[in-house]
Recover the amino acids of this structure.
């Protein structure tokens, strides 16, 4: 893992995006705070919590060195309380599954630095980019613009080396790519190819 992180650093990645799954919110079980704390990298750690009831758990991820922490609004009854618990310790993000109405972000925009729109259902790599994502991104961008705040808009899932240019044209600030970087060939070369596609 350290070697892969080094290659991504040298290829110019902006963040390392770490998917945390608990086997409940998503069927898979991945990493937790000890692994995040053990990652030695110059990259900013962008921790994406796909876990149930994050309120009592977010502190452990902050302590583990998360620079940005994103949780799902669907995973808690009280997303605003989670944002309050995080305070200014990290950059705060909220994520939306494909079936969640985008309007849920509006009352939370004063307390976030990122809205992450999922273009796939969480939990599996290699899914296709959902066609309604462009419309959802435009709707979230409109909510952000009307808030008057500088909030990043991100998209996660279904990104390929073939479609990254069209996704970048949807007005996003952050593109999360997993399979497009790590499946097939050298991860650093794949990342450079993605960045080139964004620049077109």
């Amino acid at each position: 893992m350290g070697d892969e992180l080094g290659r991504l650093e040298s290829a110019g990645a902006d963040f390392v995006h770490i998917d945390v799954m608990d086997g409940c919110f998503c069927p898979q079980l991945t990493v937790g705070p000890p692994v995040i704390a053990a990652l030695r990298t110059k990259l900013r750690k962008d921790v994406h919590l796909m876990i149930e009831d994050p309120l009592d758990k977010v502190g452990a991820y902050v302590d583990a060195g998360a620079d940005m922490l994103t949780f799902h609004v669907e995973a808690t009854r009280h997303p605003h309380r989670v944002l309050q618990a995080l305070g200014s310790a990290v950059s705060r993000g909220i994520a939306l599954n494909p079936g969640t109405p985008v309007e849920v972000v509006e009352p939370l925009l004063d307390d976030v630095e990122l809205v992450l729109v999922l273009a796939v259902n969480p939990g599996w790599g290699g899914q296709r980019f959902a066609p309604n994502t462009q419309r959802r991104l435009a709707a979230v961008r409109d909510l952000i613009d009307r808030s008057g705040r500088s909030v990043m808009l991100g998209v996660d899932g279904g990104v390929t080396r073939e479609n990254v240019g069209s996704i970048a044209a949807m007005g996003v600030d952050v593109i999360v790519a997993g399979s497009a970087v790590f499946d097939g060939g050298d991860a650093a070369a794949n990342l450079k190819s993605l960045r080139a596609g964004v620049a077109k």
In short: DSSP finds eight helices and seven strands in the chain. The longest strand covers residues 15-21. The mean pLDDT is 93.
